[in-house]
Amino acid sequence: MKQARGFTLVELAVVIFVITLLLGSILIPLSTQVEQKQISDTQKTLEEIKEALIGFALVNGYLPCPDTNNDGMEDVNVSTGKCSTVSSGIAAGNLPWATLSVANTDVWGNRFRYISNERYAWRTPAAVISLSGGGTDVRICQTANCGGTGTAVVAAILSHGKNGYGATNSLSGTTNPNPTGADEIENTDGDREIVSRVISAPESSSGEFDDIVASLSRYILFNRMVTAGRLP
Asked: Per 3-state DSSP, what percentage of the chain is helix, strand, and coil (rounded to 5)?
């Protein structure tokens, strides 16, 4: 009677190698699916925040100011009725999530950045948003320092993505490491230009970029305010 022959070390190594390949082919797509879901969830949250901004404007007649001290509330200079931190007509800081009653972080635990045409956030005169527009619009770009004319965008909200560079960490309250790519740096400098483009890896010719951006058009805001009877 013949005895059953066991696996040789070579055969066992081949089996382990094949199993490793199979597991790798499963795990890589799974990690990609998780990352895609995180991006999709963040995009959905940004759209909800945009709706909250419109709702705030419908109720108050102006947009909220940014949160500049990380307490979740908008920061307004009560003596002037204008945002507390403004540079070249742009109010920039973190999203005033508590003021808007929206999500306080992205899926990676970082605060959302928010910038606006500061003219649309003035408290005085009353019903400051008007069809005549005014102020300095936000400019949505595909690369840093894109130049050109304005894009009729009155506000932008962004997540600093998975790497979180330049964002405020919600747990520590401190700012994450600064970005190194020119386009991500542009999204942290507080000026009117915001880069919105496809994600790219650190080794790419265009530099690392994974910010996720949503913008509010002046004309969409006007349309909603006219429909609601807040503008003539």
From this structure: 30, 20, 50
pLDDT digits (tens, 9 = 90+) for 173-197: 899 999 999 999 999 999 999 999 9
How far apart (Å, rounded) are the C-alpha atoms in residues 133 and 111?
29
Residues in the chain: 232
Q: What's the distance, Cα to Cα, between the start and end of the chain in Å?
A: 99
- 109 and 171 Cβ atoms separated by less than 8 Å: yes
Does residue 99 lie within any of the structural domains?
yes
Range of the domain at 94: 9-227
Residue 218 lies in a domain: yes
DSSP state of 121: G
Ramachandran category for residue 2: left, alpha or beta (phi over 0 → left; psi -120 to 50 → alpha): beta
Residues 105-156 have pLDDT tens digits of 999 999 999 999 999 999 876 656 888 778 899 999 999 978 766 679 999 9
Asked, for residue 70, whether it belongs to a domain, the answer is yes
CA distance readout (Å), 28 to 21, 34, 41, 198: 11, 10, 20, 21
